[in-house]
User: Which sequence fits this backbone?
């Protein structure tokens, strides 16, 4: 991608129409989300004609493409210091969703507690900020206004809390880590989730996203908002020594 000539040639061949551009980026988003991991994906017309030859697999309509699973946390638990994060998903999925103009997918990813925490753990809060504003500006995703306000108000504290292993170890002793774990695993019992529902009660579009039926995605948009009464205080450097 460092070569402008290569980039121009790629654009003119594969992204030369809006329809093709949206389709290509939708395919990339599909891959980085792991949508077809561990389940058969239907063949398109061209591939079906190839696979259905008599000497191969006549009548087969779908197949396991061996698409890798794409969890945000590859190993360990996010609320602990020792975990392996999926950098490729965190850096590519939202980018592809925005270029594919997939508003629902972008809002779902940008509004999840897990995604916000992963971005801060990777030190990519500025990139997250850019993604949020791109979603609002290009996709008119006003549903993310609560997330933007949450990130803006808590940028310093989240950076301090999630960047360093020392802070994470401290958080596990003081309850901050348990708060995040509860929000991820049992959102209906989490103060973070409950406060999100209060924050979004005035907006029907947000209220639908932060509902009991979306507990697995841990509250799109407002779920990242914290209750004032349960907010962890800033972690001062002196407390980490």
Assistant:
């Amino acid at each position: 991608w460092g070569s402008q000539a290569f980039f121009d040639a790629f654009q003119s061949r594969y992204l030369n129409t809006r329809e093709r551009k949206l389709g290509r980026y939708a395919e990339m988003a599909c891959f980085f989300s792991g949508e077809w991991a561990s389940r058969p994906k239907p063949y398109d017309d061209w591939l079906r004609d190839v696979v259905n030859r008599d000497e191969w697999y006549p009548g087969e309509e779908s197949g396991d493409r061996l698409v890798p699973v794409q969890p945000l946390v590859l190993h360990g638990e996010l609320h602990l210091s020792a975990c392996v994060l999926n950098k490729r998903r965190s850096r590519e999925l939202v980018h592809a969703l925005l270029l594919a103009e997939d508003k629902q997918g972008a809002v779902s990813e940008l509004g999840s507690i897990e995604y916000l925490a992963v971005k801060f753990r990777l030190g990519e809060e500025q990139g997250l900020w850019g993604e949020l504003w791109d979603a609002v500006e290009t996709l008119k995703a006003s549903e993310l206004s609560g997330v933007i306000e949450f990130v803006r108000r808590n940028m310093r504290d989240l950076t301090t809390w999630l960047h360093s292993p020392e802070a994470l170890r401290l958080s596990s002793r003081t309850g901050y880590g348990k708060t995040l774990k509860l929000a991820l695993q049992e959102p209906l019992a989490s103060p973070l989730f409950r406060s999100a529902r209060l924050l979004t009660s005035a907006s029907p579009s947000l209220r639908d996203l932060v509902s009991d039926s979306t507990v697995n995605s841990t509250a799109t948009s407002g779920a990242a908002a914290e209750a004032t009464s349960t907010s962890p205080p800033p972690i001062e450097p002196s407390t980490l020594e």
Notes: The longest helix spans residues 145-163. Residues 196 and 216 are 15 Å apart (CA to CA). The mean pLDDT is 74. Strands lie at 41-42, 62-63, 73-76, 83-85.
